[in-house]
Amino acid sequence: WFGILTVVLAAFSFSFAARQKEKINNRNHAIVFCPRVTVKSAPSLNSTDLFLLYEGVKVEISDSLDMWKEIKLSDGNLGWLPDSCIVKI
Q: pTM here?
């Protein structure tokens, strides 16, 4: 029985470690680093202004296109920011 228990515990440990590694490698959160930045409706300076964000706000990165990142806020708001204004955490 000891051998079976050891194998089960080892499998559980490896599974847990793999999930933790995936969480670390798939960093999709960032912090706004610009003092004030306008979130856009599309990845372009000419697109519609949606709302303002300020330095220190945590965002989730949902997509990337050229030098732009699509972000999602905790309240569900979506928009695009220049990637120069955010730093992944």
A: 0.72
